[in-house]
C-alpha cells in the first residue's frame, strides 16, 4: 500500500459492515446465533432474519437467509465517506468487476454490488441505519449500544470473514489495488503458490482473509467470525457447545498467523463460524511489511499452541462440494 | 471529522510512536519498567535510556530521561506517509504552534517539533528505525518482533498518553482540526466546561486524552499507558506491586469511558503509569458521533465497576505542583 | 486441632450442605439468583423456594424463605458419616447448645438443630437427597450433575457463609472445639479483641467465617457466598449488575485474607451475597498454624489489591439494625 | 471408603508432600523448573536439588536427582497426625509392601518406605521442615510463604502425580484399602479392564492417578503436576514454551475427567510435566460415588474441549521403554 513508488495509501474503505449467510436450517441457525452466542434479532423480512451482536452499532451485522444449501450471501463494506464510495465504485468499474447499484436493504441505503475475481458477492455502501435501542435495553454504559444479553455466552461484535478462493493472489490483489486493503500476513508455498492472505483496512490483522480452495471451487465461504475479546469466553462457550452437541472443529487454541485465540464450530445450518477470544495484535505501523509464512514456518503459523486444525479445516467450506479424492492439507 | 459540511476525514497521523518521560530516579524508574513490567532496553545515550515493549516494532516507545523532576519530555506521532507529514507540518505552522524541525534522535529521522496550546512538547515524524532483533531473541512467531521476556509480567505495547490541560476544549480542537484526530468520548460539566476528551486516529478509543488540570497548571503529564490485553495480567502485576511496595493508585477496575480494564500506579520516579488489561472496545464507524458523558452519568463513566479513583487521581500529575487548597474532584 | 497435647484432629464435619436466607422480596431475590447468577430452582413448598448451582450435587444448597425482613434462616452441615453425626450431636448437647432433632426437610433426612453461642440457627445432618437430573439437562460431562445453564453468568457451587457475631472468639471456639473446625486465619486487634475468624473442615480456607458485629447485635448474617472459580466471571457479572441496577458493594478485588478474588452485592431482598472468582489458596497442611493478621497488617489483609471495602461492609448485616451512632471500621 | 458395610472413612493421609524425579540432564531440568515455571531452589546435596513452588509451605515439593535415565525417584505422603502415621505403617506392613523406616532427608524427619504393588517407591511421614523465608522474600501477604517470583510464569504449588501401572485396579485398591484414599473417577473398558483411576485424600479429584501401562512395564512415572489455578497462565507459559523450544505434548485443553484445564510438556530431562490451569472441581460429598467413564463416554472424558492427546500420551512414561510394536491408544 505505501508502495516504494511513493504513492500514498488509500483510506476509502472503513470497515466490514455486515455479512449474509445462507442456511437450509433457519431454526437451527437462529438457535445457535441467538441462544448460544447471544446475538440479538433486529428484524425479519421475507426469507431473511437480521442479527447483531450487543456491541454492534448498526441495524445488523449478520443477515441469515433461508436457502437450499449453506454458503455466503454477500459481504458488505462501509466506506469512510460518500466521496470514498464514489471513488471505489469507479475503481471497481474500471476493474470490470462491478454489477451496479441496488436500492439498499433493511439497515442501509443504496449499495454498489460487485464480485471478487473468484465470484464472492460483495457490496460497498455509505448510508447505514443505526440500531435503535429499546428502552428496556438501554444501559448507563453509554458507549455500548445496548445491554449485554443474559442468554448464552454473548459475542461482542462482528470481526471478519474468511473466504476460500481458487487463486489467493488474484483475489487479494483485487482488494489491495482496487479497494485499498493492506496485506498483513500471507502464506507462501514452496511451489510458488500463495496459500492464504490476511488483509485489513484497520489495525486489525484482518477483516478478510482468503485461503486457497483445495477443491478447486470458486466463491465459497470458509467462515464468519464474531469476537469475544476474552479467552475465558472461549472456554465458556466450548463447555456449552460440548453439552448441547455443537461440533467444535478446532480450538480453543492460538494461531501464529494473526496471533488469534480461536475456536471453530459448524453452526446447525452447516456454515463454519469462528469465535475470537482475545485482542490478537494490532497493526499501527503505516508502512507495515507483510509477514510471510513459508512452509518451514507454517506449523507454528497455523497453530502456535493448542488444538491442531483437522484436515477438514482446509477442505470444508460452504456450500460443501464433493471431494473427488482426498486432498492434502500441505498440497 | 466527518463533518456535516461534507469535508472528508484526514488520515495523516497514523499512530503514537513514542513518549519521553523525565525521572529524578533513573535507577528506580528502570527497575519498574524493566524488571516489573518487562520492557526491554534498546540503547542508552547521555541522560536517556530507550525502552520498548516486546511487541513494539520500533527502536523504542519510551525514552526515559534524567531530570530534577518527573514529567513529560515529549510525545511523538508518526504520520501515514511522508506527504502526510508535510501537510500536517503546514497545518501546524498555520496554527502558529510549530517550533521547527530537528535532526532526529536515536530510533528515528528528522522530526517536526510543536506544542499543544497548553504547551505539551510534541513531534511529528515519518522515518523510523525498526528494532533489530538479536539472534537469541528471535521467535518462530514471526509477527512478533522478539520473544516474550521472562522478567516480571511483561506488557505488550505502548497504548496511549493522557495529558492534563488547563483548557481541554482548546487542546482537543487543536488535535482534531490541525492533526485530524477524531473525538471519541468526552465529559461535559453542567457549568459548560469540558472536563476530559478522548481522541484517536485509529479504532482505539484513544491514543491521547486530555483531562482538566484542576490545579490550573499547564502542560503536565497525567499518565503513559502500556497494554497487556488480558485482565489476568493486571491481577498478576498487582500482586507483584503489592509485594514490592509499588503504590497502586487505583484498579484493577473498569472505566465506563473507553471501557478499559485499568490499573494506575506511580513509578519510582513519580510519574503515573496506566496498565491496560483488555481490548476495550474499538471504533470502526467512520461517522462516529462522540459519546458525551454529562455529570449525571459521570460516576458510571469513571468507574463502571471495581476500584474507585481517589481524589488524588484528579489532582496529581507530573511535574507535581503545590495545591494551595484542596480542590474537589467534582469541581 | 492438631493440638500440642497430641490429640488427633476431628474429621466429623464434612461440608457446608446448604444455607437458608430470608427475604421480604421473594420475586426480586429469585430474579437475582436465577436470572442473573444462574441458580436452578429444584422445588417450592410453602413460603420457601429451593435452589442450587449447576455443580451442586444435592437437592439444594440455598433455601429462600419469605419473611418480613432479610436475614439468616439457618446453616446446615453434613457430617462425614452417620457415626460422626452421633458424636457431634453428643458434643453439642454437652456444650448446652443443642435444640434437638427435627424430621428433615425437602432434600434431606432428619437433622439435629443447634445454635452458635451468638444464636445463629444451624443443623447437622447425614442423610441427603441428590439432585435428580431431568433428561434434557443431562450432560456428557458425567462428573457434573447437569448442564451449565444458559441464563446470566451462572455460579458453580456454594462456597461459604460469613456470620456477624457479638463475640468472635467464643463462636469460633465453639466450632473448633465442639465441631472440629480448624481455625485458618484470624484478625487480632491491639485491644485484644478478635475481629474476625475464618474456619474450615476442608482445604478451603473457610466454609464459615465470623466477623465482629460492631452494632453489638447477635446472630446476624453477613453474607452467603457462591463460587465461580474464574476471575473473568466476576467482570462479566459486574457488567450485568451495573446494567440492571444491582448494587455492587465492593469488588472485584482480592482479599489478603484467604487470597480470594471477591465481589459483594446486595440482592433485592437485602442480603449480602459474595461471588468468589478464583480458587483462592487451599490448605493441605494437617498441622496448619493459623495466620493472624494484626492491626498493622490489616489493610493488606482486607484488600490485597483492587476495590476497597466501604465502611458499610463492616456494619451492614441482615437483619439490618439501626446504628445509633456511626461506628468506625477500625474500632 | 464410606462402604455400605457402615465402616467409617479413614482420614490418616493428609496430602502429597513431595515427589522425587530422576534426570539425566540436571542443567536442563533445573532451567525448565526454575527459569520457565518459576520454582525456587531451597538446597542442594549430593546429586539432588530441592525445589518448591512459591506457595508451597514445606522445604521442598520436588527433589530432582541426577540419574542415567529419567523416571520417578519416589512419592512422599504426609499423614494427618503422628498416630495416623503409625496406623498406616501397620496397615502397609500387614499388606506386605513395607520396606522399613529411614532416617529422613533434607526437609523432613523419619519416613516409612514402601512400594505400590506395581513397585513405585513411596514413603509416609509426619515430621516436616517448613520453608524458612529469607528477609528479602517476605511478603505482606502473610498467608503466602514468600513473594511471587519474577521469573517466567511461576506455578503456585504441587498438585498431583500420575503413575503408569501394569494393573490399575490392584494399585488403586492398595491405596484405598491400605492408605484410605477415595476413588473419585475411573475408566472401565468393555474388556473389563480398568484403564485409569483418580484418587484423593482431599476434595481435590486426585493427588494421585494410575493409568494402564500399555507397554506392560511396571512402576513408571507418567507425570508430575504443578498448579497455576488460572487458565491465562497456561497460555502465557505455552507462549514461552513455543518460543524456547519446549515440546508441548498436548494442551491447553480441558479434560472431562477431573474437569482440569491441562497442558503437558516434556521437560529437558525427559519427564512429562503437567501444568494445571484452573481449580477443576472439588469433591466435598463424604459419600461420593466414583464417576465411571465407559468406552462410549471416553472421548469426552479424555478431552472435553481443546487439544486432543496424541497416541504417545498413552505410551510414553519414564523411564522410557522400547515399544516392540506400535500400540494403539484405544487398545
From TrEMBL, chains A, B, C, D:
It comes from Thermalbibacter longus. The lineage of its organism: Bacteria, Pseudomonadati, Thermomicrobiota, Thermomicrobia, Thermomicrobiales. It catalyses: catechol + O2 = (2Z,4E)-2-hydroxy-6-oxohexa-2,4-dienoate + H(+). Keywords: Aromatic hydrocarbons catabolism, Dioxygenase, Iron, Metal-binding, Oxidoreductase, Repeat. SUPFAM superfamilies: Glyoxalase/Bleomycin resistance protein/Dihydroxybiphenyl dioxygenase. Its cofactor is Fe(2+). InterPro entries: Catechol_2-3_dOase, Glyas_Bleomycin-R_OHBP_Dase, Glyas_Fos-R_dOase_dom, GlyoxalaseI/FosfomycinResist, VOC_core, Xdiol_ring_cleave_dOase_1/2. GO terms for molecular function: catechol 2,3-dioxygenase activity; ferrous iron binding. Pfam families: Glyoxalase. Belongs to the extradiol ring-cleavage dioxygenase family. Residues 15-127, 157-278 form the VOC domain. This is Metapyrocatechase. Its EC number is 1.13.11.2.
Amino acid at each position: 500500500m505505501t508502495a516504494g513508488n511513493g504513492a500514498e495509501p488509500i483510506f476509502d474503505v472503513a470497515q466490514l459492515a455486515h455479512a449474509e449467510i445462507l442456511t437450509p436450517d433457519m431454526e437451527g441457525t437462529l438457535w445457535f446465533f441467538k441462544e448460544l452466542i447471544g446475538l440479538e434479532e433486529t428484524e425479519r423480512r421475507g426469507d431473511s432474519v437480521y442479527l447483531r451482536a450487543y456491541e454492534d452499532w448498526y441495524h445488523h451485522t449478520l443477515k441469515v437467509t433461508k436457502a437450499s444449501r449453506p454458503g455466503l450471501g454477500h459481504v458488505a463494506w462501509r466506506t469512510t465517506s460518500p466521496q470514498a464510495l464514489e471513488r471505489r465504485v469507479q475503481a471497481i468499474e474500471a476493474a470490470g468487476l462491478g454489477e451496479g447499484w441496488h436500492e439498499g436493504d433493511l439497515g442501509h441505503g443504496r449499495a454498489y454490488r460487485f464480485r471478487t475475481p473468484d465470484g464472492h458477492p460483495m457490496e460497498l455502501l455509505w448510508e447505514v441505519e443505526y440500531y435503535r435501542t429499546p428502552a428496556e435495553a438501554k444501559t448507563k454504559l453509554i458507549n455500548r449500544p445496548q445491554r449485554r444479553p443474559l442468554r448464552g455466552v454473548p459475542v461482542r461484535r462482528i470481526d471478519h470473514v474468511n473466504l476460500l478462493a481458487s487463486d489467493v493472489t488474484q483475489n487479494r490483489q483485487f482488494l489491495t489495488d482496487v479497494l485499498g486493503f493492506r496485506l498483513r500476513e500471507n502464506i507462501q508455498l514452496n511451489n510458488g503458490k500463495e496459500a492464504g492472505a490476511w488483509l485489513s483496512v484497520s489495525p486489525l490483522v484482518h477483516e478478510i482473509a482468503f485461503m486457497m480452495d483445495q477443491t478447486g471451487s470458486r466463491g465459497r465461504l470458509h467462515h464468519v467470525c464474531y469476537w469475544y475479546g476474552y479467552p475465558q469466553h472461549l472456554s465458556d462457550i466450548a463447555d456449552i457447545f460440548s453439552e448441547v452437541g455443537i461440533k467444535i472443529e478446532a480450538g480453543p487454541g492460538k494461531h501464529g498467523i494473526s496471533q488469534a485465540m480461536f475456536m471453530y464450530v459448524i453452526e446447525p445450518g452447516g456454515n463454519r463460524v469462528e469465535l475470537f477470544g482475545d485482542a490478537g495484535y494490532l497493526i499501527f505501523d503505516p508502512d507495515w511489511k507483510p509477514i510471510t509464512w513459508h512452509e518451514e514456518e507454517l506449523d507454528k503459523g497455523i497453530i502456535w499452541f493448542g488444538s491442531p486444525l483437522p484436515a477438514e479445516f482446509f477442505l470444508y467450506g460452504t456450500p460443501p462440494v464433493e471431494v473427488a479424492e482426498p486432498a492434502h492439507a500441505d498440497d
